[in-house]
Request: fold
Amino acid sequence: MSSTHLRAWLAAFAMLIGLIGSASAQDKADAKADPKTDKKAATIKILLPETLYKPAEVRIEGVLTKQSGAERSFVTPPLDAGKVYIYKVEAVIEPNNYTKIIRTREVNFKAGEELTVDLRKKDDKIADDVRIRWVPTPKDIVKKMGELAKIGKEDVVCDLGCGDAVMIITAVKEMGAKKGIGIDIDPKRVSEAKENAKTSGIADKIEIREGNILKLDAKDLADVNVMMLYLGDEMNIRLRPMLWNALKPGTRIVSHRFIMGDWKPEKTITVKGEDNDEYTLHVWTITGKEKDGKFDKKVD
Ligand SMILES: C[S@@+](CC[C@H](N)C(=O)[O-])C[C@H]1O[C@@H](n2cnc3c(N)ncnc32)[C@H](O)[C@@H]1O
Reply:
């Protein structure tokens, strides 16, 4: 299909998505055939996870659709027979109030077809993107994490999703780590982190990078031997293969609250914070035996 042809009916389809979002089953049936031509509509059924913090947002070719629920159905305008149409379907899935999973699929179909796009589970061949909301770890809890990971003067400490850089600044300034590396996708957090590094007087030992931690290569973490995390179970399980591949034996991973799928922590502790809340902290050490390509299928 030429891109001109695709664009020409995209506008029509965008309108139809909006209309059909709340249409009855009869409306959908009427929309399927055009009696004056031999054109036929296609039906796209989309399956989504059932238990979510809020209904998933679905976009078809960038257009926000209106339906809700775990099973949704969209009907295209009448399409030319024999041509292959290619569509991008994107869902923003929120399993809890701090995680957004962005799941994308490209579907190919022809006029008259009924197809199902199953977005209920992650597909390791088409990686999800994930965003975690910023919630800072209190400084006294960062110190407990540092003790658990035995941070000392030989360590290069990294925080994936560093927020305002409280973890790496505390590790360098108060636990003597030789360097801190923080990576965050949010430009606002990145500039706060840089500013905080400056005002804490250790900017020469802090490196802040802007980027998506799900797009890192092993070389990005070449010097790191302590990894501090406060993300989410869904994010950790997606980071795990990269961490196993990139981190040298002896590297400690210390996580505030969240686990790593079926990779059992070496130690888990619960501590009381200065704010009187309880915090659960986990630590793992990379042994070198993790790099066996094993992947946990339990977290979708
Ligand atoms: C829960 S906060 C933790 C902040 C800091 N580590 C702490 O403990 O104070 C999660 C951070 O991860 C960042 N983040 C979320 N998704 C990301 C992604 N895909 N790539 C990079 N950073 C991300 C957010 O901008 C946020 O600053």
Summary: The first strand starts at residue 43 and ends at 47. The radius of gyration is 24 Å.
